[in-house]
Fold Monovalent cation/H+ antiporter subunit D family protein.
Amino acid sequence: MSADNAIVLALCVPLLTAVGIQLAGRISDNLREAVTLTGAAALAWVVWGMLPALFAGARPEFTVGELLPGIGIAFTVEPLGMLFAALASGLWIINSVYSIGYMRGNKEKHQTRFYTCFALALSATIGIAFAGNLLTLFLCYELLTLSTYPLVAHKGDEATIRSARVYLGILLCTSIGLLLPAILWTYHVAGHGDFTAGGILEGHIAGADVGLLLALFVFGIGKAAVMPVHRWLPAAMVAPTPVSALLHAVAVVKAGVFSVTKVIVYIFGVDFLFATPSSGWLVYAAAFTIIAASLVALRQQNLKRLLAYSTIAQLSYVVMAAAVLKPLAEIGAAVHMVAHAFGKITLFFAAGAIYTAAKKTELGQLRGIGRRMPWTMAAFTIGALSMIGVPPTAGFVSKWYILAGAFEANNLLAIFTIIASTALNAIYFLPIVFAAWFYNEQPGGTPHGEAPPLVVIALCTTALLTLGFFFFNGPVIELENQLVEGMLP
């Protein structure tokens, strides 16, 4: 199968899986879940099968058609998008295993709808990853928002629906009100919106307009959660934990920071932005988001809300790394997408396991829980250490590259932010870990053990990935080196 045909198949597999889930759900739960796992495995096989061509320097393309001269729907596979697609497709398998255990363990309703929307969200995610131009990116971005709304609103009670509307409202308002004008402006001045190595805006826009256009893109891509466009993310914590994992690790927030990074690299161009002073505000905005979100996380007593604000901070690591505009930092931005995905999905899996087995959601309820749920809390500990950036975890690798890029640029603000936020991460994660392992459990609690086996298998797998990436990150670094080759002197 050619790589060009593989693009079409990668887009279609999740759609066909969604149809299969709907049909199988009318027959039996086991068949529905078998279709889900088969579809997830098939997508990973297709996407990962394109890697040899990418390593060899190929850039597969597929054009659907032109709507107007220079404005069409097209897909291109390049290193950054390949990394995002490989990450999302691989984690869909693990998340599906986890979802089966979680949804059954909690006797959740509307499971067929849940798995269907999940598959549709993955199709939109692959579309974002392989988008060849801004129009295609925008369309797939909106489809991702719409397909994940039913997942956020899954429980269906009044409070959940209200929070889901916040999720939908903020993401749609920012994309239509800010991102779409930015795209139209780009097409107007550059004549096209194709993602092009080195960017397409140099010589077409200058001065303060560059900073303004960059702001429209960054805040219009609300999924990146740069403050103040972040409130949708804590609101979405009303969703079941597998959805939270989708939002934080597999698709939604990664689509945000991926899109910001792709716009910086392929629309503006790193050299052009570096030479334009009006773009310098982005590092400050990202640094503020990192520190502010970390401080808010310190005040949280609900575990999922703490993880949500931690995600907001961690996302801006990627934005700040991209905004440093140096090759090592750009690699760090890409690597941190992987590191954060492995670590954060582990933390959310652990939070869901604790809720499934013990119905505990608050930090004060976690005292001594490591003795009853040792596998879950061991995985949580690994995820927490990765968020802090302690070796040998994935988080250390990405922070190393981001710091190296900051030193390369002599960017003292980025250096200080990484050091300060690392300390804040330790302050709000380590007490949880310490209390879980070394404090006595509160008396009067309901006896419990580990969550269902599928849940434990999934979270242990992602914990091992978090550790394994520290030692086996070479292919990712090699792939992303292709991204920054044009930036090197």
Observations:
- The longest helix spans residues 158-190.
